[in-house]
Amino acid sequence: MTVMLPPPSTAVDDLLPTLRAQGFAVLDAAGVGAWLGLAPQALAALQPAWDDLPADEYLKDGGRYRRRRHGCYRIDAAGSLAAVPHRAHYQPLEYNALHGGMRRWFAPLTPALTEQPAWPRLLMGVAQLASALRGPRTWYLEAHPFRIDTTGGIGRPTPEGAHRDGVDLVAVFLVRRHAIKGGESRVFEADGPRGQRFTLVEPWSALLLDDERVIHETTPIQPLREGEPGWRDTLVLTVRSGGFLGDEEGAG
User: Fold this and answer.
1) What is the pLDDT of residue 184?
2) CA atoms of 50 and 232, how far apart (whole Å)
3) Burial (CB count <10 Å: 0-12, 13-18, 19+), residue 82
4) Which of 16, 168, 169, 247 is the most buried (most CB within 10 A)?
5) Start-to-end CA span in the chain (Å)
């Protein structure tokens, strides 16, 4: 039997105070809809894009369990959103010991996702939360739709282990779980002993992380039933001030 700890969801009105108090906050799907001003149908309309994600060709553990795309945006302090030319995803080794230090060119986002009315609202909502947390400024946002599946019997959402992303704010939206066990979210103080663990199961629930204060990871997934493939779909949005990670290394 698989035991899943329920997420410590907060009311949408308490999102910012909770994020400030403990470095992370969880919203259920209703809370995400209220926060972003989006109906459930608008969020659900994004989901088919996860059926069109190419394989991640950069996995150093030899796995074939991760599929993804990647896109980048600039949101200025006045709230103007603009996509930037397709660029590599880059992380220094200090933030990703497994895949850091190299330029990874993932397939771009598709119109099937970016032309949905909910898409810009998602991006703007996360950037506005970052401004509420840090103060208004220009934000550099990276969008990562992921599918982790049980090819080979196991899938690793965070093969690099517990980590920070080197940004200001991370938003992890659970899009869908299908026929899996595992996939537990774990959040720890970056400079302290406290941590919390729970499992996101509700489509379009979200984990928001102050990346300067906490580290996070997600445990591996396995098939719920032998012989039946399973997967976990997420959307990870990261926002950073001052430029994209790797600009100084010429990674873009």
Assistant:
1) 98
2) 10
3) exposed
4) 169
5) 46
- At the topology level, CATH places domain 12-249 in Jelly Rolls (2.60.120)
Q: In this predicted structure, what is the pLDDT of residue 133?
A: 98
CA angle 72, 234, 207 (to 5 degrees): 90
Cα–Cα distance for residue pair 164/216, rounded to 1 Å: 7
pLDDT of residue 179: 97
SS3 for 111-155, per residue? HHHHCCCHHHHHHHHHHHHHHHHHCCCCEEEEEEEEEEECHHHCE
Tell me how far apart the alpha carbons of residues 244 and 252 are, in angstroms, rounded to a whole number: 8
Closest CA to 126 of 146, 112, 115, 140: 140
pLDDT < 50 positions in the chain: 250-252
Q: 113 in the Ramachandran plot: left (φ > 0), alpha (ψ -120 to 50) or beta?
A: alpha
The secondary structure of 40-74 as a DSSP string is: HHHHHTTGGGGGS--B-TT-TT----EEE-BEEEE
DSSP 250: T
Q: Does residue 166 contact residue 240 with C-beta atoms inside 8 Å? A: yes
Could you write out the three-class secondary structure of 91-108?
CCCCCCCCCCCCCECCCE
- Identity (one letter) of the amino acid at 145? P
Q: Which of 230, 183, 233, 191 is nearest to 210 (CA)?
A: 191
Answer whether 56's CB lies under 8 Å from 125's CB. no
CA–CA dist 231, 178 (Å, integer) = 5
Q: How far apart are CA 7 and CA 5, in angstroms?
A: 6
Tokens at residue 65, please? 């369990």
Q: What is the pLDDT of residue 224?
A: 95
